[in-house]
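Recall that a protein's primary structure is simply its ordered list of amino acids. Everything else, from secondary elements to tertiary packing, is in principle encoded there. The following example makes that idea concrete.
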Amino acid sequence: MLLIISNCNNSGTEQWYKGNLHTHTFWSDGDAPPEITVDWYKTNGYDFLALSDHNILSTIEKWIKVHDTDPGGWPPVMTKEKLKDIQNRFGFDWIKTRTKNDTLEMQLTTLDKLKIKFESANEFLLIQSEEISDVYEETPIHINATNIAEFIPPQGGNSVFDVLQRNINAVREQREKTGQSMIAHINHPNYEWALLSEHLINIEGDSFFEVYNGHPLVNNWGNNEKPSTDKMWDIVLTMRILKDLPPMYGLAVDDAHAYYNYKIGKSNPGRGWVMVKAKELNADNIVLSLESGNFYSSTGVVLKDIKKNNQSYLIHIIEKPGIRYKTQFIGSINNMNYLDEKNINKIGNILFETDSNPAKYNFTGEEMYVRAKIVSDKFQDNPYSEGDLEMAWTQPIVLK
């Protein structure tokens, strides 16, 4: 009999919640004040949002200069036009301004004030997060810490792996210290080709990474020399299972920075998200469901249900009129030596492909793990790259 190691709880009392776990504002290098960002996600049907600016929490007093016009370049700047937009949307009393040394400045809105304005019970949730942005020599290494209680400075380290592990450890240590539910996840591994599969294989603690990121510089699809993040996932899964380590889960995120100019080449909102199945919309339940793999990631494909047992893997797609869907069940098999480099192309093959809905895969007993990727024939609105189709990724089920 097959033993299910990783599974989903499909209780009838649960429901799907849509959220983004990677978001930037003027608190670091986004091009919008936080209320504009939060308003976009709430208006566009998201249930929760993690504000995850670089190496800062939006809990302190911070003022930024208001420019007459945007000079271009990086990082983005606040302008009088954007200030007027905030005042028109939220009222002149919402935002604080001052003139200091003949320069107009605006105070950034803190998370507690944003929560009062935007949160509503079981309808919309804001989660305090941070993108811990570190470096080893010239290699950028970024870890998102979701639902943290206190600021975590970059930890540094003696190698790429050491920096990754130290920062994940810092999140775990804060969780143990405070008792607050929180997770860490590894960001955009192909950003500047920073991370290799081997860097993720032996990570201990939280086991999440971004299989899809909407930022234009993250190289989701790889190239002739570097694997896609999809392929990296299969390599990491296979090797972690061989080492008796927990599976790595794949997240889709926006990594949104740009809220005023929507096009390919800009890091816009609305490109990638997670659908988390939980009993209630609060941070504890969201974290718990993520940790148990009770979620899927998407760039547009919507699922009604995911069912797994020790015989089969069943996925029910909510179809859009006129759109066709192809479900690929992907996995590695047991009866080969994966440590042999000759077999690298045999890792993470398509075990079965179907256009049926629901899509069903019956386990043969030879699989190490199985995950699913659903690809539609509908082009994604405002995609990460030209020609991207709407997709979804389910989490792996591990079998021994």
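The two ends are 9 Å apart (CA to CA). The helical segments are 34-43, 80-90, 111-118, 160-178, 197-201, 229-242, 283-291.
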